[in-house]
Structures are given as C-alpha cells and as structure tokens.
Amino acid sequence: MIRSLASPERLWRLLMTGLCFVLFGLGGLLLSQVWFNLLLLCVRNRYTRRRLARRSISVSFRVFLTIARTVGALDYRIYNARTLREEQGCLIVANHPTLLDYVLLASVMPETDCLVKSSLLKNPFLSGVIRAADYLINSEADALLSQSQTRLAHGDTIMIFPEGTRTRPGEKMTLHRGAAHIAVRCHCDIRTVAIRCSEHLLDKQSKWYHVPPTRPLFEATPGERVQIDHFCDVNEQEPARAARQLTRHLLLKLQSVESTFSGLNDASALS
Asked: What phi, psi does 91 have (nearest 5°)?
C-alpha cells in the first residue's frame, strides 16, 4: 500500500479526494441547516421555495466539481449539456457506475426532480437536501405514480437510476422496471444518459481512498429520447407488457455505454 502511493501526484490526489469528501459533507450540512431554513422562513410559496432549493443544489454541485478538478482529484466532461438542461416533461434514465453520477447530472440540470431511496432520509448530510428539494421517495408507492404524473405534466424532469444501486464492475447490468412503469402509466418519453469513469473510483467495490494510478475522468452524455408511443398504446396493450418491453430496450441502450462515447470530443463538452 505504501509503495502504491509512493508517487507524489497520487498521494496528492488521495489527500485532495479526502478533502473533497469533507467539503461535500460540510456543504450538505450548510445547505440543510442554514440556507434551506432561510428559504423556509423567507419564501412562503412552496413551489418557488422548491425551485430555489433545486437551483441552489445545482450551483453547489458545479462549485464542488470545479474545486475537485482544480485540486486535481478528478476531471469531468458533460457532453451536450444543453440537451439535458433544456429537457422537459420526461424521465432522465441513466446507468449508475459511481457515487458522483447524480452530482454530474444535477450540476447542469437546475430544475430536475429525482427519485431517491427512502434510506437516504436517514443520512444527516442528505436528508435536509432531499426534503428541501421535495424529491420523490421510492417507498411511497401509493403516491409515487400520481405525484410523478403531476410533476411531469408541469414540465418537470425526473431523474432515475433504474439499476437501484451502483453497477458492480464486471457484473451484468440489470434494471428494475420502476422507471418503465412510470413512463408507461404517465405516458411520458425517456431521455437516456450514459455515464462512465475511466478508472475504478467511487464504484460499488472501492472505497474513497482507493485512488487509481491516474487521475479519473468522469463523463456523461445524453442519448436518444425514447418515444413512449413506440412501446405502448393505452387502448391496445396492457401496461405491464409495455413496461417489460421498454425495460429491455433501456437495458440495451445503457449496456452500450462505451459505444455511446465514440466520436465525442472536447469541443462538445461542458468545461
């Protein structure tokens, strides 16, 4: 272990990665305990308050990523970010290789909603953020569909990672059908997003201090907008069957991550 960290550059990235984790946690606490409480006191309209909270989260993520890049902990590129930023009324469905996937996407999507695990409400660094942004909770099954339909009808995007947890390197990707069921029953399109990291960092099988030999590059790019009309006809096909077909289609799209990035260049990336 000592020899593997003998490189001054790698040791520096280890220290800076630790610093970034501390900054991320402190940022979450400050947002939850200070800024969001000020919004609660000063902004009476719930929807305006939610919008400001989500924009604050997006700005905070951009600042975090800029700091992480500046100190050399990582590099990142988000291709065709304008497509994501201008998307409305659809689900954003992405693969989930690392802990930073949501941070990357939300940094360029200041209005996006998100479907989150109920267990995250117990996290002291994230619970206040989730409540202030009024994200959808995956345990509230009875209300989830109607809430999703209402928000999509108002032009919201809802970000979902249908694997349910981070991808295990080397293992076959599997998807839950929740995203497809929402798309079919709310009759909304899906925008697929491919994410990859050049090194093993912050994935399911590594700790934050397992810094790779070279600086990791995180990349994200939107794929096609999947038209829901191609998969279901509310008058002819049962929703469960349509959801199965749509899930298979999404799986094929998300499995071909490497080919998604072929031909992309720095000119189309958000710096």
From this structure: -85, 140
179 domain residue, yes or no: yes
Which residue's structure tokens are 């924009």? 55
**Residues 122 and 220 sit within 8 Å (Cβ to Cβ):** no
Token pair for 267: 């000119």
| Structure tokens belonging to residue 252 | 């094929």
For residue 179, give the CATH number of its domain. Answer: 3.40.1130
Q: For CA atoms 205, 114, 218, 9, give the dihedral sign.
A: negative
Using a cut of 0.70, tell me whether the model's pTM lies above it. yes
The pair of structure tokens assigned to 155 is 């032009």
Q: Is residue 21 included in any domain, yes or no?
A: yes
Pairing mode, if any, of strands 190-197 and 158-160?
Answer: unpaired
Q: Is residue 266 part of a domain?
A: no
Q: Name the H helices within 2-139.
A: 8-30, 36-42, 46-70, 81-85, 101-106, 127-133
Cα distance between residue 74 and residue 215, in whole Å: 6
Q: How many domains does the structure of the chain reveal?
A: 1
- Copy the structure tokens of residue 151: 């928000």
Residue range of the domain that includes 211: 3-260
Q: How far apart are the first and last CA of the chain?
A: 34
108-154 pLDDT, tens digit per residue, is: 999 999 999 888 888 887 888 899 999 999 876 678 999 999 999 99
